[in-house]
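Practice problem 4.
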């Protein structure tokens, strides 16, 4: 077993493609196949399932991937420690992110990061918070970002951004800026409500918030459901109903006069966004750099 074989396996597993892996690490496809065949023969187990349409890891492949990536991370860290200051930092960071961070937090963060580190490529996949946890457990991603803390102890979950959820209403609504508990309860019971999908961090936080009002989701007059924040805001701006959304997502809509937002000053409706990494994974230098940058970036902003 050598590092070239491990690298070939890791990139095929990450990219689900022999050809993409070959292009990425500048080897021919036959060489990639040879490396993986040798690795499977040495380990005595199949690591990848190959079909005409796709390539993906077996259960043994997923288990071995963690160890293979950790060995490559140690190699990269060793090289980085003796070569610092010599050349620019290069690499790739793959992120799973829930709706709000994917659409409203990561774009500005990545733009700022790449001004200092232009040779680092980002690959971002959007999902809801619940799915981020499932995919980060079973698939090949470096980090997850969620709008609620996930249960269990599979991940290191670091809070990095403090968010406030506000009530978004159509611009034509005549609603006081400060709502009493009774007025808010009446509003939520009677007005059409735009809901997020099951698995959404926003929906989970909404359920917790409603308990303080002695309400449940069943008390709301839900008229439609969207799987992302942009859809919710579009529906609100079109007059379809009201909804709770992240304050971070509302700037453009309020500036253009498309919606109004109501701060819930008498209530605590705040949450954290979390950066997730797998506990057993050793972070590569590029991943450590991004993690540190992200935490410092939002610490300075807030």
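Answer key:
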């Amino acid at each position: 077993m050598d590092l070239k074989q491990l690298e070939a396996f890791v990139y095929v597993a990450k990219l689900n493609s022999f050809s993409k892996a070959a292009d990425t690490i500048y080897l021919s496809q036959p060489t990639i196949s040879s490396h993986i065949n040798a690795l499977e023969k040495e380990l005595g187990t199949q690591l990848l399932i190959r079909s005409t349409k796709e390539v993906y890891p077996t259960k043994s492949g997923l288990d071995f991937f963690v160890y293979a990536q950790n060995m490559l991370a140690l190699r990269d860290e060793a090289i980085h420690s003796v070569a610092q200051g010599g050349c620019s930092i290069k690499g790739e960071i793959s992120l799973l992110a829930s709706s709000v961070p994917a659409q409203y937090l990561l774009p500005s963060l990545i733009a700022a990061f790449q001004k200092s580190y232009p040779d680092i490529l980002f690959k971002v996949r959007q999902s809801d918070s619940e799915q981020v946890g499932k995919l980060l457990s079973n698939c090949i991603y470096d980090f997850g970002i969620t709008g609620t803390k996930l249960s269990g102890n599979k991940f290191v979950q670091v809070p990095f951004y403090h968010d406030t959820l506000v009530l978004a209403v159509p611009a034509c609504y005549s609603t006081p800026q400060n709502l009493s508990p009774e007025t808010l309860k009446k509003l939520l019971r009677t007005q059409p409500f735009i809901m997020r999908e099951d698995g959404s961090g926003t929906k989970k936080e909404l359920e917790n918030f409603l308990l303080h009002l002695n309400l449940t989701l069943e008390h709301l007059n839900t008229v439609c459901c969207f799987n992302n924040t942009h859809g919710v805001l579009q529906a609100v701006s079109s007059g379809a109903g009201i909804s709770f959304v992240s304050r971070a997502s509302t700037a453009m809509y309020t500036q253009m006069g498309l919606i109004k937002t109501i701060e819930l000053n008498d209530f605590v409706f705040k949450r954290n966004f979390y950066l997730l990494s797998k506990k057993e994974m050793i972070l590569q230098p590029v991943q450590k750099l991004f993690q540190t940058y992200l935490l410092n970036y939002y610490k300075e902003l807030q």
